[in-house]
Amino acid sequence: MNKSLRQLFTAVIILFTILGLSSTIITAIRANQLNADPRNSRTLYHEIGAPRGPILASDGTVLAKSEPTNDSFAYQRSYANGALYAPITGYFSITHPVDRGLEMSRNDLLAGDSNALFWQKFKSLFTGAENKGASIETSINPKLQGAAYQALAGMDGAAVAIEPKTGRILAMASTPSYDPNQLAQHDTNKVNNVYAQLTSGDNSPMINRAIAQYYPPGSTFKTVVAAAALETGKYNPDTSIPAGASYTLPGTATNLTNAESSANGSNGQISFEDALAYSSNTAFAQLGVSLGDQAVETQARKLGFGSSITVDGSDSTGGPMKAISSLFPTGLTPDKLALASIGQGDVNATPLQNALIASAVANGGTLMRPTLVDRVRSSDLSVISQTDPAVMSQAFSKDTSDKLGQMMQTVVTKENPNLAIPGVKVAAKTGTAQIGQNNSSIDGWVIGFAPADNPKIAVAVVVHNTDVLGSYAAGPIMKQIMQEALQQ
Fold it and tell me: Would you say the C-alpha torsion 105, 107, 112, 116 has a positive or negative sign?
């Protein structure tokens, strides 16, 4: 072989090597990056061109499904009662990436791209059958979801209902809401206009207020302080603690008072039980200072404060659906600790977080990890995965749970009879958090569980920017959800 042929042969080998390396990089190493590139229209047509799996309620009600169309995209996502279930489903759009709800957290499974569907994809390759996405069976109870959403109509707020023994989320309503069908249509101009309207301003209806918005918890946080006190072993429901008509915040000239004289106690003292029942600010401010910020913070963290709680999914399924971290500040001065102990100041909580507090009390102090999906099935109905109950933390002892549950029952029997359900023991704690300039408005709260002697449901409700006390703003909503649950 002469020199020219050798050089040509070498050049060809080098070019083939470069071609092989570049093909490997494109098809393997950079595959995920290229698929995720928004400029890659082939990925979009691949996703739209096959039917995504359905999203179902716990009773089989279809919340989301893909329906055939006559356009180039082949399928369009359809949402039944879209605004009702939007906080759970999220949306799927041809113009915007999935970024919320189960459409995001289970995207790979719904799209049929998950490794868990390998054999299904393998069979489709050889049979020519259409590759279909997995179905997602949620824990959502349509009747409870409907009761929560209807009761919140016209308000800015949220409600969460949990099964205490398992952590299954039975309802997660957020208002105002939006209709995902408007974002699922194939007219890109219309979708972009709708999306721009929905996302403008700070009060977007696309915000899931149950997990992505926090509020000052007001007096509902007194349950956390009460648990911290009971855990020391130095307090019982009948223990007398300092109260009074007013309390000067340490190191300041600010006087803290109570909403009602019954919260003042007698001769500067009140029973621990009555302090919770009548929501004594002066008692719990002093109690929090006496316990110290470490004790209160530790108890709050055991209940989930300071951590972003995963509600569903992971990076391997599409992306985790997470609740933002509820906040209890660290290193508080005594005056700020006093305010934090009554749920004011720099304390903030999501409705999910408050539902978890009620759930922990209802479940003997054991806090179960919240879940939204019961199981996942492939298109042939075989079970791919099933969610088992898991402990999130041992928030406090069974003894503390029993005593705190007893005290929360007196919140209803002594001070808030409007929350009572005939023939059922209800445990609750109301909250009226002052917000706005000069404390001109209210975030009305209630948390609770029922039946108190055999809990089936734990609930948290918040109504934002109201002028009504928590017992009357949020209380009727909790009561309706509980009554619906107890009828089933």
Answer: negative
β-strand partners of 444: 432, 463
Q: Which residues are catalytic?
A: 219
pTM: 0.89
Distance between CA atoms of residues 427 and 237, nearest Å: 15
Per-residue pLDDT tens listing for the chain (488 residues): 566 777 777 777 888 888 777 766 665 555 556 555 555 545 555 556 578 999 999 999 999 999 999 887 889 999 999 999 999 999 999 999 999 999 999 998 998 876 765 555 545 554 545 667 889 999 999 999 999 999 999 999 999 999 999 999 999 999 999 999 999 999 999 999 999 999 988 889 999 999 999 999 999 999 999 999 999 999 999 999 999 999 999 999 999 999 999 999 999 999 999 999 999 999 999 999 999 999 999 999 999 999 999 999 998 888 999 999 999 999 999 999 999 999 999 999 999 999 999 999 999 999 999 999 999 998 888 899 999 999 999 999 999 999 999 999 999 999 999 999 999 999 999 999 999 888 889 999 999 999 999 999 999 999 999 999 999 999 999 999 999 999 98
Q: What is the dihedral of CA 208, 213, 215, 220, to 10 degrees?
A: 60
In 11-126, at which residue ranges do the beta strands (DSSP E only) sit? 55-56, 62-68, 75-79
Distances (CA, A) of 209 to 155, 157, 332, 455: 12, 7, 27, 25
Quick check: 420 and 395 in contact, CB under 8 A? no
CA distance 353 to 88: 17
- CA 333, 335, 336, 342 torsion-angle sign: positive
DSSP H or E run through 287: helix 281-291
Distance of alpha carbon 357 from its chain centroid, rounded? 13
- Token code pair at residue 426: 């209800």
Q: In the structure, how many helices (H) and strands (E) does the chain have? A: 19, 19
335-351 b/e (C-beta count within 10 Å ≥ 16 → b): bbbbbbbbbbbebbbbb
State the Cα–Cα distance between residues 192 and 302, nearest whole angstrom: 43
Name the DSSP letter for residue 49.
Answer: T
Residues forming a β-bridge with 449: 427, 458
Q: Are 226 and 244 in contact (CB under 8 A)?
A: no
The first and second tokens of residue 55, run together, are 């999203």
CA distance 283 to 304: 25
Order of all β-strands in the sheet with 457-466: 169-175, 157-162, 457-466, 441-450, 427-435
- Residue 424 is encoded by which pair of tokens? 């059922």
